[in-house]
Inverse folding.
C-alpha cells in the first residue's frame, strides 16, 4: 500500500523489517558476450555503454515494481515482492523483462550509431522463498537467486526464460513455450524452463476441465433462460482461488459462441482496477463496439461518462443483436464504477452478467454474493479424490510427474482444488515437494503482507498447528501477551483471514526457522499435557516434537534449545511407544523405542524406561533373544542404574522372568520398593499365569482381578493386553458362575472397545461364555467377528488364537467336525508362527475330537497339566487301536486324575468332555458313565449349584 506525506504529498517508504521470509520473483539479466566486448573497447567507453545498459534495464525493472538487488559486473538483479508482496509479482517481473528488452532495442540503435555495437541481453526469472533484509543491496538470500542466474545462462539472445514456479504464476498472462531442461551447476537435477514472450489476443485459454458437468448444465440453462428475460440478470459463480471458475467461464464462452444471435463478451478484473477505474470499462466499451469500430480521439471521458456510455452500448447491442452475456472473471477486484453496470438501464434487450469471484476470506472480498446484486449464486464444488486422480492422469502428458511417493500425497495436498493440484504436480515434476501452490502463496501472501508482525505470527502458528491447536492454547504457542494476542486475532478477523486454512499455511510457509522450531515445540508440549484427557492427540504431539527438533537442529545445532527439543521428542516417542503397546501395535513400539533411544543421550532414567518398553515389545513380536540381550545391556549399570529408574528396572526383571521362566532374586525385593501400580500389576499377571500353568485357575482369576483393578485406578501401562486377555480367559476357566462371568467379561470388552485387537481378544473368551449361557448363534457370531478383526488386520498370532477359540465354541455346541476343523487350522497357524507347543496341543485336541489325522508330535508334558491330559487321551486312542483295552483304560484314568487336581470348575469342562468322547470311542461303558457324571458335576458347580445337567445335545456323537 502506497503511503504519502499529508503535508507535502511526497511518498513515504514503509520501515523495512530486519528480515522476512517471503515469496519473491528474481530477475537476473546479463549481457551476452560481454567479455569480448570489454576487450574491444577502452574501459571508459565500455563504462559508458554499461551505464546506458544499467539505466535501461534497471529503469524498466524498477518501473514494473521491482527493487534492484545488485549490479554484478554487467549483471542486473531485480527482486519483485522484496518490500511488499503482491499477487502479480511474477507477472510484473516478466513484464519488466519485456519492457527492458524493448528499451534496449531502442538504445541499441544509438549504440550502433555511436560505437558500432549492439548489446544482446538475456533474462532468467525464478520464483521462490527468500529471506529479505533491510540492507540496501544484496538484501535477498536464498537458492532462488542462484536459480535465476543459472536460467539466464540458458536463455536465448534477447530472450526471457522462467522456472517452474514462475511459469505457474504467469502462464495465463504471457505466452510460454517449454525448452529442454537446463543442467544447472549446484542443483541436483536439470531445471525445467520455459521461454516467455508477450501474449497476443489470439492465444487461447489454457487448462483442463474436470468434474463440473452438473454445474455447467445448471449454469448454461440459467444463462439461456435469462437471455429470454427483459433487463439485467446477474448470476454469481463463487469458489475458492484455483477451484476452476475461470475454466467454467471458458467452457461457457465456447458454448455460447455457437448459439445463433446475441453477443458474448469476456473481461477479467485485475487487482489494481480500483486504482485505475477506466481500464476495464474501456476494455468492455471496445469489445462491444467490435473490431471494426473507429478509435475515439479528442477529449477523454470521465469515469462517470464511461459508465453511461458502456451501459448505453449494452442496451443497444442487446436490443439490436440479441442477448448480451458478459462473463466477468475475478469480480472481487471490480471497481465501484464497473459494478454500476449491474444496475438496470431503461430500454434494451436481455443483458446477463456472469460474475466469477472468490469465496469470502479467500482474498479480495468476494464475500456475500448478495452484495453483488446476484439473482442466483452457484458454487464450484471441490474435486473428489477420484476426479483429482483423473486430472493428474490428464495433465501427465504436459507435466512430467516424478513424485517418489506417487499421486496420493499430491491429491491430499491439493485439497480438491484443480489449480493447486496441477501446480503441486508441476513442482513435483521438478523435484520440489511443497505444501503450498505458488498461486495461493502469491495471492494470500499479498493479503498477509500488510498485517502487523503479531498478526502474521499468530496466523503462522495456526498454520503450524492445523487442527491440533485450540484457541485457548494460542497464548502459550504464540508466546504473546494476552492483549497482544487478542489484538492480533481481531486484526486477522477484520482482514477475513481468521479461519482461512490456506492463508494460515501460507503464513507458516513464510515463517523463519527459529520461530518454527519454537512453535512446534510449544505445540508438542501442549499436546502432551492434553494426552491424559484425550489420548488420540499423542501422535500429533510426536509429529510436532519431531518437526520442532528438526528445525532446531537446522537453525541452531548443539544449542540448549536443540538439546531441550531432543529431550522432549524422546519423551513423546516413549509415550507413543507405551500407547502403541497398549493398542497391541508392538512392531510400531519397537520402531518408536529405537528412535527414542537415539535421542536419550546420557539420561539414565530415560534409557531404562526405553529399554523396559523395547524388551516388552520385542517379546511380543517373537524376538526373545534380542529382548534378553537388551535386558543384559540395560542392566549393566548395577545398583546405580536401578536407582535411576526403579520402575523401569522392575519391568525389565518381570520381562526377564517371563522369558527365562524363573525369577531374579532381586524381583521380590524390588517389588516392596517400587512405586508403580502398573509394574505391580505386571507381577500379579505373571503370578496369575504361573498359577494357571499349575492348574490353580481360582487363584489365577483372583490375581488378574487385582491386576486389572490397579490398572483401572492408576492408568494403563505395560501388560495391559495381558491383563485383559488373561482375565477374560480366567473368567471362563474359574469358579465364577456363568451369568456373572459373562456380565464381567462383557464389561471388560466394553472397556477396550476403542482398541480393535484387544477387543477381539476379550471377545474370544466372551464367545465361550455366551455359548455356555445357551446362545449358540450369538457365540458363533462373536467368535467369527473376532477372527475377522485379526484376519483383516493381518495379525497372525491373533488369527491363530481366534481359530482355537472358535473350535472351543463349536465343541461346547456339540459340533465336533467343526471343532476339529478349527483346531487343525489353528495348529497350522501356530506352527507357521513357530509356536510348536500350542500347535501340538491343537493337533492333539483335533485327534481327540474326531479320531482323524494323528498328531505328528507330542510335546514334553512335565510343566503343563494340559499337555499331560492331552497326551494321555491320545495314548488311550492309540492303545485302543492296537487292541490294548487295559492300557487304554489306564491312560484315560491318568487323564481323569490329572483333571481332578485342577482348581477351577470352568477349566475342567473341556478336558472332561475330551475324556468322555475318548471313553465313548473306545467303547468303555463304565468309564463313559463315570466321565458323564464328572461333566454334570463340573457344570453344576460352574452354574452355581443350579442342579442342572450339561445339555445332553452337546455331548457329541458317542462312539464316533
Amino acid at each position: 500500500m502506497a503511503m504519502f506525506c499529508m503535508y507535502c504529498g511526497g511518498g513515504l517508504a514503509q520501515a523495512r523489517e530486519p528480515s522476512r521470509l517471503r515469496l519473491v520473483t528474481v530477475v537476473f539479466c546479463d549481457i551476452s558476450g560481454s567479455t569480448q566486448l570489454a576487450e574491444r573497447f577502452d574501459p571508459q567507453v565500455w563504462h559508458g555503454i554499461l551505464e546506458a545498459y544499467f539505466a535501461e534495464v534497471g529503469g524498466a525493472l524498477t518501473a514494473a515494481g521491482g527493487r534492484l538487488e545488485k549490479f554484478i559486473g554487467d549483471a542486473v538483479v531485480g527482486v519483485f515482492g522484496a518490500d511488499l508482496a503482491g499477487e502479480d509479482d511474477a507477472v510484473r517481473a516478466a513484464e519488466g523483462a519485456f519492457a527492458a528488452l524493448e528499451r534496449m532495442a531502442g538504445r541499441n540503435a544509438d549504440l550502433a550509431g555511436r560505437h558500432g555495437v549492439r548489446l544482446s541481453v538475456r533474462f532468467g526469472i525464478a520464483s521462490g522463498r527468500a529471506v529479505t533484509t533491510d540492507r540496501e543491496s544484496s538484501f535477498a538470500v536464498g537458492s532462488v537467486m542462484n536459480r535465476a542466474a543459472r536460467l539466464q545462462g540458458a536463455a536465448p539472445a534477447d530472450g526471457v526464460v522462467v522456472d517452474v514456479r514462475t511459469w505457474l504464476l504467469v502462464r495465463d498472462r504471457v505466452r510460454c513455450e517449454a525448452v529442454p531442461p537446463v543442467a544447472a551447476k549446484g542443483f541436483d537435477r536439470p531445471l525445467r524452463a520455459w521461454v516467455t514472450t508477450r501474449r497476443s489476443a489470439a492465444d487461447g485459454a489454457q487448462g483442463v476441465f474436470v468434474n463440473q458437468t452438473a454445474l455447467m448444465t445448471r449454469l448454461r440453462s440459467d444463462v439461456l433462460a435469462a437471455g429470454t428475460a427483459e433487463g439485467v440478470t446477474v448470476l454469481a459463480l463463487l469458489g475458492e482461488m484455483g477451484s476452476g471458475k475461470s475454466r467454467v467461464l471458458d467452457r461457457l464462452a465456447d458454448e455460447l459462441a455457437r448459439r445463433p444471435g446475441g453477443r458474448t463478451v469476456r473481461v477479467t478484473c485485475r487487482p489494481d482496477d480500483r486504482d485505475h477505474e477506466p481500464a476495464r470499462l474501456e476494455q468492455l466499451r471496445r469489445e462491444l463496439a467490435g473490431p471494426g469500430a473507429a478509435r475515439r480521439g479528442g477529449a477523454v471521458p470521465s469515469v462517470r461518462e464511461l459508465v453511461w456510455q458502456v451501459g448505453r452500448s449494452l442496451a443497444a447491442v442487446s436490443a439490436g443483436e440479441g442477448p448480451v452475456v458478459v462473463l466477468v472473471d475475478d469480480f472481487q477486484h471490480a471497481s465501484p464504477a464497473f459494478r454500476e453496470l449491474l444496475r438496470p438501464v431503461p430500454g434494451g434487450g436481455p443483458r446477463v452478467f456472469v460474475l466469477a469471484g472468490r469465496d469470502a476470506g479467500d482474498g479480495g472480498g468476494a464475500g456475500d454474493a448478495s452484495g453483488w446484486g446476484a439473482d442466483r449464486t452457484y458454487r464450484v464444488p471441490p474435486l473428489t479424490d477420484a476426479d483429482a486422480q483423473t486430472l493428474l492422469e490428464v495433465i501427465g502428458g504436459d507435466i512430467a510427474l516424478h513424485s517418489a511417493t506417487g499421486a496420493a500425497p499430491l491429491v491430499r495436498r491439493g485439497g480438491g482444488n484443480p489449480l493447486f493440484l496441477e501446480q503441486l504436480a508441476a513442482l513435483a515434476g521438478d523435484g520440489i515437494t511443497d505444501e503450498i501452490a505458488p498461486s495461493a502463496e502469491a495471492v494470500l501472501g499479498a493479503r498477509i503482507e500488510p498485517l502487523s508482525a503479531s498478526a502474521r505470527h499468530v496466523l503462522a502458528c495456526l498454520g503450524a498447528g492445523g487442527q491440533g491447536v485450540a484457541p485457548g492454547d494460542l497464548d502459550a504457542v504464540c508466546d504473546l501477551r494476552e492483549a497482544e494476542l487478542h489484538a492480533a486475532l481481531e486484526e486477522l478477523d477484520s482482514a477475513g483471514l481468521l479461519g482461512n486454512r490456506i492463508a494460515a499455511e501460507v503464513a507458516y510457509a513464510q515463517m523463519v526457522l527459529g520461530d518454527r522450531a519454537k512453535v512446534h515445540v510449544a505445540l508438542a508440549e501442549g499436546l502432551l499435557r492434553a494426552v491424559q484427557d484425550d489420548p488420540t492427540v499423542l501422535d500429533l504431539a510426536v509429529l510436532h516434537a519431531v518437526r520442532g527438533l528438526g528445525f532446531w537442529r537446522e537453525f541452531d545445532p548443539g544449542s540448549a534449545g536443540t538439546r531441550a527439543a531432543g529431550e522432549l521428542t524422546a519423551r513423546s516417542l516413549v509415550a507413543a511407544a507405551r500407547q502403541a503397546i497398549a493398542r497391541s501395535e508392538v512392531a510400531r513400539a519397537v520402531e518408536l523405542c529405537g528412535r527414542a533411544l537415539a535421542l536419550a543421550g546420557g539420561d539414565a532414567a530415560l534409557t531404562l524406561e526405553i529399554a523396559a518398553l523395547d524388551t516388552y515389545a520385542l517379546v511380543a513380536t517373537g524376538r526373545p533373544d534380542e529382548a534378553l540381550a537388551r535386558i543384559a545391556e540395560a542392566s549393566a549399570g548395577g545398583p546405580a542404574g536401578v536407582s535411576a529408574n526403579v520402575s523401569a528396572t522392575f519391568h525389565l526383571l518381570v520381562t526377564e522372568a517371563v522369558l527365562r521362566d524363573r525369577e531374579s532374586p532381586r524381583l521380590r525385593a524390588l517389588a516392596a520398593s517400587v512405586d508403580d501400580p502398573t509394574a505391580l500389576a505386571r507381577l500379579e499377571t505373571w503370578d496369575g499365569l504361573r498359577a494357571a500353568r499349575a492348574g490353580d485357575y481360582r487363584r489365577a482369576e483372583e490375581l488378574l482381578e487385582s491386576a486389572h483393578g490397579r490398572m483401572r485406578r492408576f492408568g494403563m501401562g505395560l501388560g495391559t493386553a495381558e491383563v485383559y486377555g488373561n482375565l477374560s480367559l480366567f473368567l471362563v476357566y474359574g469358579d465364577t458362575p456363568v451369568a456373572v462371568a459373562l456380565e464381567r467379561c462383557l464389561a471388560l470388552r466394553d472397556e477396550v472397545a476403542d482398541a480393535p485387537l484387544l477387543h477381539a481378544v476379550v471377545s474370544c473368551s466372551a464367545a465361550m461364555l455366551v455359548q455356555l449361557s445357551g446362545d449358540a448363534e450369538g457365540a458363533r457370531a462373536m467368535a467369527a467377528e473376532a477372527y475377522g478383526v485379526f484376519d483383516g488386520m493381518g495379525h497372525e498370532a491373533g488369527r491363530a488364537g481366534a481359530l482355537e477359540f472358535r473350535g472351543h465354541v463349536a465343541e461346547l455346541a456339540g459340533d465336533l467336525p467343526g471343532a476339529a476343523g478349527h483346531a487343525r487350522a489353528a495348529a497350522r497357524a501356530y506352527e507357521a508362527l513357530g509356536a510348536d507347543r500350542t500347535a501340538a496341543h491343537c493337533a492333539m485336541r483335533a485327534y481327540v475330537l474326531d479320531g482323524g489325522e494323528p498328531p505328528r508330535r507330542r510335546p514334553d508334558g512335565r510343566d503343563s497339566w494340559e499337555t499331560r491330559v492331552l497326551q494321555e487321551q491320545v495314548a488311550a486312542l492309540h492303545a485302543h487301536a492296537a487292541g490294548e483295552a487295559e492300557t487304554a483304560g489306564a491312560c484315560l484314568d491318568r487323564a481323569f486324575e490329572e483333571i481332578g487336581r485342577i482348581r477351577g470348575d470352568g477349566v475342567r469342562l473341556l478336558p472332561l468332555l475330551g475324556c468322555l468322547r475318548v471313553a465313548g470311542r473306545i467303547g468303555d461303558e463304565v468309564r463313559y458313565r463315570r466321565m458323564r457324571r464328572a461333566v454334570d458335576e463340573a457344570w453344576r458347580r460352574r452354574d452355581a449349584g443350579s442342579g442342572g445337567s450339561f445339555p445332553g445335545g452337546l455331548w457329541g456323537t458317542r462312539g464316533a
Notes: Residues 1-15, 363-368, 397-405, 952-960 have pLDDT under 50 and may be disordered. The first strand starts at residue 3 and ends at 4.
